[in-house]
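Case study 2.
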Amino acid sequence: MTMSPSARMRAPTQQIQTIESDIVIIGGGVAGCLAALGAAEAGAKVVICEKGGIIERSGSVAAGVDHYIAILEEGPEWDTPEYLLRHIPAVTEGVTDIEAAARLVYGLKPMVRYLENLGVNFHDPQNDDIPYYRHRAFGLPGKYHINFDGSDFKRAIGHAVRKTRANVLERVMVTEILMENGQPRGAVAFHIRHGTVYFISTRAVVVATGDANRLGRNASGLPFDSWHMPYNTGDGHAMALRVGAQLGNMEFTDCTVTPKGYSTQGLNAFMGGGAHLINALGERFMFRYSPDGERGRRSDIVNGVVAETLAGRGPIYCDCTHLPLDEIRRLESTLGVDRPALPIYLAQKKIDLAKEPFEVTVGEIAAVRAGALFRGSGMHIDADCASNIPGLFAAGDCTTMGAAIAGAAVMGHVAGISAGRYALSQPRPRPVPPEVQERIQETLYQPLQREQGLKFHQFEDQVRAIVTGLIGYRRDEQRLKEALRQLHTLRELEAKLIAEDYHGVMRVNEARSIRAVAEAIAASALERRETRSGASNYRVDYPQKNDELGLRIFTVEQAGDELKVSSQPTGIPSSVLPEAPPKKEGW
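Prediction:
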């Protein structure tokens, strides 16, 4: 029987709750929900901990989504998994796990059908003759993006999870993975409203906490005005480091191009719809930076905007005036799905897309998808979504293998099945003794006991200043070393963070995660001594791509008080990679 929202919010009678499960899923976004469905299919008992709210409206697409990557095999040569897989080395510049990418790519078509069976409607509401309206964007070699009204996307999959009778703990933040003999055996979590602490015993853990945001300063200066979910703060990344898991591709950061003064999603809609980027001279400049022009990878688009600005050819504008009026109206109708306030912003600024370009700028630095689809920055996983720690799995934008919402769905389902099968082969863990529970609870709530100290937002602001000023969009060895020094010094201040309530305790833990992710980025970027993937890792002291050294996945892990960075070859030959983009103008 499904509890009402008011019942789910009610505090238990005991401050400490003990729960037994086969799998704990940390995060109730797309990856977490699909992991729950996969685990249920494997016969496992599941607990989901979702920090942000109810699972029908949580995660990066809580309000909706307007595009989805798909293979449908409708006839064109490019519309097959084999064709896309052949092009992934070029899309990722040779830095990806091709076996994990293959698992994702071959799951794209079945996942469309799976989601449609759950009630997701991918069909074009404006044209009954075209079941799927598709466009090309972000460096992919075909029209893989379905444009649709996904306002109810998350509600459909959240409702499906409810039917599995998974134990869904909402507004509950996991702060620690409990280990025994090198394997996860439980998780510690607390309710951010009423403070109940949960000790969840488990035989496997799936981390699905999404990307890491609030890392750098953004266009408006307001940290929660984020182009991705601001409550995704790298909590899974930080927990994984603490238990010995490896993070991969952390040097490849991500950001986007946004309307001036407003950090928002929408770049895919504009570029996929055929908009142009022009500089202050009226030049369409993107072909200087990518052979695909405005339909290049997001990292190439950001690199072009940054480079043109540094060259004195800014400000930069997005120009839709050449588009047919019906395409502009379609664009306007879907912009509000990903970010409902964007059409209001355009209206208040009196911007008419059909009549005039509007000024754009780069957004904040984040750890999202490592600058390219079919790659990610986060927990290093294999084709089964397993990490280097037995029993610890991960999926979605907190991992090294992603492709936006589609990647989260496909790999989330894989992670749930893999974790379910693993968990059912393992013995049940021993319960956490009461005295240990009390000690952990006391440590968790220490920020509430401190009368004086450092406020979490002040701590976060210091991290953002370091990320923006010292890591940034243009990097060099001296500044990266200084970033590491300052971030290491900040770590010592974590013991002085204070909170006034349980929501503040959540913010304290988020601040710690943000700093940990920033340090992992700096450490990895220092070791990748080359420029690769546009603005994702641009080293001014090593401005060229170096395929002799660079075709490797860099991993970072905790080694005492320091971070240890190592690398392994991807096995992708440089002969399959594209040459430098030709310098040409025009589409």
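The longest helix spans residues 502-527.
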